[in-house]
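For reproducibility, we list the full input for the S-adenosylmethionine complex.
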Amino acid sequence: MHGHPHTPVKRGRNLHSHMWIMGLVGIAAGLVLLIYVPKLTLVSKSLLLFAGFHVVGGIVVLSSLYVTTLRGLVRRWTKAGDRAEQGEAFDFGWGPGWMNGLAIAALVSLAAAVAIEVALPGLWPAAFLLVMAAAVFLAGNFVMSSFRRPDHVVLPMVDLVRGDQDLVLDAGCGAGRTSIALARGLRAGRIVAVDRFDAGYIDDGGRKLLARNLRLAGLTDRVTIEAADLTALPFPEGRFDGAVSTHVYDHLGDRKEQGLREVVRVLKPGGRFLMAVWVPGWTMFTVANVLSFFLTSKASWRAMAERAGFKVVDEGAFNHAWFVLLEKPIAAEA
Ligand SMILES: C[S@@+](CC[C@H](N)C(=O)[O-])C[C@H]1O[C@@H](n2cnc3c(N)ncnc32)[C@H](O)[C@@H]1O
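The corresponding predicted structure, in tokenized form, follows.
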């Protein structure tokens, strides 16, 4: 690696030595908070108890209000802010309610820990575990909020495109985040964006937002929208030069392999499929907790893809996800 000729480059340990100091100070401060603060008698126990239960109660009431009535208002309010700041912005339909569940879980865990520590100090190990859980929830919330950013990069740079005129399938396009990113790398190529448009976690299932986002991106002429199920694609064999899909095939339950088989069918021989999914690991543990253990592993994805008729060309880690580049072998044509 070479630095810019006029830029002095600090090398080795010096560059990050302050991080060690910050880390050690953080660990010490955290331990003081965890071990010493609950023992403080200066702070009235009843005051802590009052605070703990009221924080839990307040969160429960606000969350319920939000889910039942306030959701639309909050969305309108945050959208109004977006528009004022950025002019016409893309909207991929991730409502704030779906993305802040982990922050709410963190607050509830913390409040419950306070309440336990004061009311039932003998159960301090439970309070300790709740504080740990709160830390994990908070980390997960940071990961989830990065997904909400409209400038979140959704596709890794891989060898997917065959020519300037490719026709590429976006399988499970949602409100169009992937289609828009893909169009930027496709030159004059075209995209068919397919989805069932019934996901509860995307506002309006994404259909209207997709049309609006494509219009804002100036892509209406290059992207065709098609409502269909990925396990029974309404296209003839060998229709597409390539395909992409981000965060979709892990939603197909026990029909994942069938979904992959369908992509093999509609690809031309030699055509490639770039798929990104969440797989078990530390990042996903923060996001989905024990549920992350039930995510399909990389090894199972590879095995399924191979059974479906693909060969694995490339794979890697990307923005908390795992991506794999699959190819329909030319021999499969015969
Ligand atoms: C998490 S979203 C991802 C959307 C988009 N690819 C992105 O990264 O922003 C998953 C999408 O997959 C779609 N989907 C899930 N199962 C499907 C199926 N069987 N057929 C078609 N679409 C499906 C959902 O409707 C949803 O839009």
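Confidence is low (pLDDT under 50) at residues 1-13. Strands lie at 167-171, 190-195, 223-227, 240-246, 267-277, 311-318, 321-327. Both points were considered when choosing residues for closer inspection.
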